[in-house]
Amino acid sequence: QLQLVESGGGLVQAGGSLRLSCAASGKIFSINTMGWYRQAPGKQRELVALITISGSTNYADSVKGRFTISRDNAKNTVYLQMTSLKPEDTAVYFCNGGIGVLPGPYWGQGTQVTVSS
Question: What residues have CB less than 8 Å from 42, skipping those under 6 apart?
Answer without folding.
Answer: none
